[in-house]
Every structure is written in C-alpha cells, then in structure tokens.
Amino acid sequence: MVSRLTAETDAAETGDDIVQPFLIETSQLRGRLVRLGSVVDTIVSRHDYPDVVSEILAETIVVAGILASGLKYDGVFTLQTKGDGAVPTMVVDVTSDGEVRGYAKVVVERLPEAATAAVPVLLGQGHLAFTVDQGEHTQRYQGLVALAGESVAECIQHYMRQSDQLDSGIKVAVGRRDGAWRASGLMVQRLPDEAPGRVAMSNVEQDDWRRAMVLMGSATSDELLDPDLPPRQLLYRLFHEDGVRVYRPRDVRAGCRCSRERVTRVLTNLPAGEVAELKEPDGTLAVVCEFCHAEYRFTADELMVLARPDA
Question: What is the arithmetic mean of pLDDT over 60-83?
C-alpha cells in the first residue's frame, strides 16, 4: 500500500511503536521514521539504570529499529557495542516479526560524575557490531565499526560512509514525556545507482541530497518525540514541498525469546563441573535473563535429572 501525503492526511492518526517507510518524490530518496513509546519504556524501565545509561540504551534501540527495518531477513538482527568504558556492553536485537529486546551492562564505579550519554563518555574505546542471523544452515552477516562518534547514530553513519556505499542521514531523539521514555529516529538514504560504472552523484542529485539533509535536520527533538504529532503528519510537515509518499507501516513490540526450555537446553549442554559452580548453597540454581529479568529456578532434583539426561 502506497499513499501520497496531503495536508489532510490521517488527521486523527496515532503512531507509537511503528516503523513508517516513505519516499521523497522529487529526489526518489527513501527513508524510514521509527517512533517508539511503550516499547522503549518497557525495555529500559525493566532495569534500574542511571538516566544517562537509559538514554544511550534507548538510542541504541531506535537505531537498531531503523537498521533492521531496512533489511530483508528471516531471523534476528543484533546491534551490540563493546568498549572499555562504564558501559562495556550493550545488546539490542530485533526479530524479523518486530519483537525487540535490549540490555546494558553497567560498571557503576566507572561512571564519571555529571556523565553525559555520549559514546566516548559511557562506552569508551571499542567497536559496534551488527549481525543478521537467519538460523541454522545459513551464513551469518556481520559488520564492525569503531566507536567513532559522539552518539551511536554517528557511529553508524561513519560505517555507512566507509563501507556501505549508501549515502545515509540519521537523526535520533530520546527523552521522557510524563515520566515515560520515548525514542524516535529518522533516516534518509540514497539507493545505489544500478547503472554500471556510475558512482558519483550528479549536480542535481547532490542538490536534492543536501536539501533532504537540511529538511531532515530541521526536525526538532520535540517533534520527533511528540506523541500527539502522528508520524505521517511529521513527514508531511518536513517534506511536503517535494512530495512524500508513505508505505504500509510496520508494528514493533517489546518481547523476549527466553524460556525455561531454552535455559534447560543450555544447562544440559554444560559440563557438570560448571553447573556445580553455579549452584546456590542449598543445591538449587537460578538463571536470570539479562534482557527481561525473568528468573528460571531449578531444584536440586531437577538438576540431577539434567545431569543424567538418560534417566
């Protein structure tokens, strides 16, 4: 479904927790607007993070949503950071059916006073990796980029400039409204030209690109996060002079793929000595999911059965 936006389009539309693909008509530039409300608040609020950590995790969640929505895959897209800072690890993944989860590992002692949610401050030096895993018997795709930028979005733009041959602009906003976390991201891309041997943009294309970047940059954080400003109305406000068409939006939701069955399989495959080290003094064992904090507890008798799968 494709529709051209007008001033009267979707006046009553609401639009949280969606990905809205679009096309700027005059330049044929494509884009995606991601608007997250309860999804990002649910994921971040599960953990007792300092605000700056919640902020950078929320940014990573919306960036992962932007990237995953531009790929054709049947499996899991994962965005992961590794650094030597106060937040040595962040992991966000998005399934092909729109389920999102994420967490951050925090070393509170390393947090500087008056810390900001900037990559050099919280993550330090390291890298950002994104992986597409489509299951067994398929080849995993992985990209790596240094943590070079003030934000996660800047790191991704750096990677795209260096290795993806896609002109891409990204703008992300994160904040709280009425106590709840919200996040939104806007990406505009120029698709690679299929004509053989043609790489550089023409003068007209360069002008179109610069204009699109200026228009995208004019979107304020308040506009991106405003729950009362529907995504399609925001896109019309930004790009209506050049014409903008939208495609069917895609819903996203917070969720986790952990289960007792998965944990049982992991414990069954662990050496008996490692399982014994994980046991509590009373012989039981509890496994807590880093993503959703669900706890799976096993009694001493259950662990004995797992240690002897033929019993």
Answer: 94
Q: SS3 letters for the chain? A: CEEECCCCCCCCCCCCCEEEEEEECCCCEEEEEEEECHHHHHHHHCCCCCHHHHHHHHHHHHHHHHHHCCCCCCCEEEEEEEECCCCCEEEEEEECCCEEEEEEECCHHHCCCCCCCCHHHHCCCEEEEEEEECCCCCCCEEEEEECCCCCHHHHHHHHHHHHHCCEEEEEEEEEEECCEEEEEEEEEEECCCCCCCCCCCCHHHHHHHHHHHHHHHCCCHHHHHCCCCCHHHHHHHHHHHHCEEEECCEECEECCCCCHHHHHHHHHHCCHHHHHHHCCCCCCEEEECCCCCCEEEECHHHHHHHHCCCC
* Domain 17-193+202-254 CATH class label: alpha beta
Categorize the per-residue pLDDT at 272 as very low, low, confident or very high, splitting at 50, 70 and 90.
Answer: confident
Residues of the chain with CATH 3.55.30.10: 17-193+202-254
Separation CA 21–CA 249 (nearest Å): 6
Give the pLDDT band (50/70/90) at residue 199: low
In whole angstroms, give the CA distance from residue 102 to residue 47: 10
pLDDT of 196 reads 47
Higher pLDDT, 221 or 71: 221
State pTM to two decimals. Answer: 0.90
Specify the domain boundaries for CATH 3.90.1280.10 within the chain.
260-307
pLDDT in tens, 32-50: 999 999 999 999 999 999 9
CATH superfamily to which 260-307 belongs: HSP33 redox switch-like (3.90.1280.10)
